[in-house]
């Protein structure tokens, strides 16, 4: 999911010229680079927090999850099903009416397809059905076409068909067959259809809520022009299904706009592997260009390597030349490979058990297993290890489920320094972590700490999230509440002091 056109032509087709005019209004332009294909450039300066571009999806669908969502605004309250096809949900008549032009044909097709086929309807199949129907509706001018909302932009997206494995192609063909049976469109071949599934796989974005939980999928052909960097100057967030790209750094005129396609916490080798596997390219961002250099070797050894056996030493370990162990770069102490392997094996079996237990919803048992994993990881890994960070994230999640607020706060605080190390100072996950911390502190009556954490959360999230959403209004309200309470306490203490 989520991606970009790496292999596209270097000459701008007419559709890109129309788009160029629309983008000029935002202070942006589409350019091409020899190695990366299309890219988005700023034609003016942008400050942190400023919206660079926002785009409604060409097509979108909510996820199949236990939390039902409105097909248009993705809200999850007051939902009613389409009475005819029984597939989409709407939060009210406003959203249903706004969606009707696009849903009408889909509804007829779904009713005609019969209950059995409707039951096999996955979000991806629906996305494809909606893609063809929107193309048809725009072609027949039933719904308007704009410079940023037209099928030609979808055609410009790459499909990476030549790099896809046979097994995947067979699956796409099966999915394409189902789409054809439902839509009965005469002009779409199985091959075109399969190609479009591949396009969706490379380009569709996972739509997340303000807390970065996935809620749906959408195709945003203009946002897809933005290239990836492991140290991006912008961030992609969603407000309902609207994609909003905001600057997190100062972006000066003439600079390329970048977002990150992946979770950036990890060594350069790990990030590069993920990008290659999911997006089929080799990243050449400034972080990745440091691969193999002293700083990068050290950082990788800290994030994914081992702890020094000497308890008071926090040095990082590098594989010894004799290949029998790892040597601490600070104190010279050698850690034996066999001893490392023994702990690693024990950890692996515990981790498998923990994730199974967590998936089954048995939070109490999952908590005990993760708590057994933590000291083992502390013994094996560096104290800034990503694995340790993930264990603590799981424990935080579990303790929140178990409503053990004190326990949750302990882990929330343990995670913060790890996040501060792996993420830049303006990053949505860091902001959200401060927010969780602040909420827990408030709940536990630690007003002063809550005020500090919520202030930090607002400082970050007002840049990454803006201030318009209900989520942010809620956070700003909590901050005011904490401020008022802290001021009140201070006056009370002052009053007592002056008696
Ligand atoms: Zn709605
Ligand atoms: Zn319907
Ligand atoms: Zn990179
Ligand atoms: Zn050491």
Structure write-up:
- It is a single chain.
- Helix content is 51%, strand content 12%.
- With 499 residues, the chain is an alpha+beta fold.
- Among the domains are: 65-113, no CATH class; 426-499, Tetratricopeptide repeat domain (Serine Threonine Protein Phosphatase 5, Tetratricopeptide repeat), CATH 1.25.40.10.
- A three-stranded antiparallel β-sheet has the order 3-11-10, with no helix packed on it. The protein has a three-stranded antiparallel β-sheet with strand order 4-8-7, covered by helices on one side.
- Helix 10 runs antiparallel to helix 11 (386-401).
- The radius of gyration is 25 Å and the shape is globular.
- The termini are far apart.
- Mean pLDDT is 91; it is low at 1-11.
- Residues 26-262 form the SET domain.
- GO terms for molecular function: zinc ion binding.
- Keywords: Metal-binding, Zinc, Zinc-finger.
Summarize the main sheet: 3 strands, antiparallel
Q: Which geometry do the CA atoms define?
A: globular
**Strand content range:** 5-15%
Q: Which ligands, by name, code or SMILES, are bound?
A: zinc ion
Going by CATH, the homologous superfamily of the domain at 426-499 would be Tetratricopeptide repeat domain
Q: How many β strands by DSSP?
A: 15
Compose a concise summary of this entry.
It contains 15 helices and 15 strands. It is α+β, with helices and mostly antiparallel strands. Among the domains are: 49 residues, no CATH class; 74 residues, Serine Threonine Protein Phosphatase 5, Tetratricopeptide repeat.
């Amino acid at each position: 999911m989520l991606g970009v056109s790496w292999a596209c032509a270097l000459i701008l087709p007419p559709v890109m010229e129309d788009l160029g005019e629309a983008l000029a209004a935002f202070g942006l332009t589409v350019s091409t680079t020899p190695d990366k294909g299309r890219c988005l450039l700023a034609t003016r300066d942008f400050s942190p927090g400023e919206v660079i571009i926002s785009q409604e999806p060409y097509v979108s669908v909510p996820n199949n999850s236990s939390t039902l969502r409105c097909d248009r605004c993705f809200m999850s309250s007051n939902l009613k099903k389409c009475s005819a096809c029984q597939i989409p949900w709407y939060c009210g008549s406003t959203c249903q009416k706004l969606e009707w032009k696009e849903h009408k044909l889909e509804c007829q097709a779904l009713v005609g397809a019969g209950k059995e086929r409707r039951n096999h309807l996955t979000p991806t199949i629906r996305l494809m059905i909606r893609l063809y129907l929107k193309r048809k509706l725009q072609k027949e001018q039933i719904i308007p076409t704009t410079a940023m909302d037209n099928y030609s932009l979808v055609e410009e997206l790459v499909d990476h068909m030549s790099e896809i494995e046979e097994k995947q192609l067979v699956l796409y063909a099966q999915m394409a067959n189902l789409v054809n049976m439902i839509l009965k469109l005469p002009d779409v071949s199985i091959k075109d259809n399969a190609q479009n599934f591949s396009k969706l796989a490379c380009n569709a974005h996972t739509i997340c809520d303000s807390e970065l939980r996935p809620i749906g999928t959408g195709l945003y052909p203009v946002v897809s022009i933005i290239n990836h960097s492991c140290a991006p100057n912008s961030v992609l967030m969603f407000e309902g299904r609207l994609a909003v790209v905001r600057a997190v750094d100062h972006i000066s005129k003439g600079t390329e706009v970048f977002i990150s396609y992946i979770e950036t916490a990890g060594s350069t080798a790990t990030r590069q592997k993920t990008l290659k596997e999911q997006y089929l390219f080799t990243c050449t961002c400034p972080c990745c260009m440091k691969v193999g250099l002293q700083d990068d070797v050290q950082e990788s050894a800290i994030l994914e390597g081992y702890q020094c056996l000497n308890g008071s030493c926090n040095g990082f370990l590098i594989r010894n030349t004799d290949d029998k162990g790892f040597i601490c770069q600070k104190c010279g102490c050698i850690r034996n490979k066999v001893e490392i392997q023994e702990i690693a094996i024990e950890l692996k079996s515990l981790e498998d058990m923990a994730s199974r237990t967590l998936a089954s919803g048995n939070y109490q048992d999952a908590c005990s297993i993760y708590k057994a994993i933590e000291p083992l990881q502390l013994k094996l890994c560096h104290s800034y290890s990503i694995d340790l960070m993930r264990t603590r994230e799981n424990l935080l999640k579990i303790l929140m489920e178990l409503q053990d607020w004190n326990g949750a706060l302990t882990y929330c605080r343990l995670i913060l320094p790890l996040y501060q190390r792996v993420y830049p100072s303006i990053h949505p996950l860091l902001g959200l972590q401060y927010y969780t911390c602040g909420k827990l502190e408030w709940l536990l009556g630690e007003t002063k700490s809550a005020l500090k954490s919520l202030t930090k959360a607002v400082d970050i999230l007002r840049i990454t999230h803006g201030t318009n959403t209900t989520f942010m209004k809620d956070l700003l309200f909590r901050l005011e509440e904490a401020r008022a309470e802290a001021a009140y306490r201070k006056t009370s203490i002052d009053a007592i002091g002056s008696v």
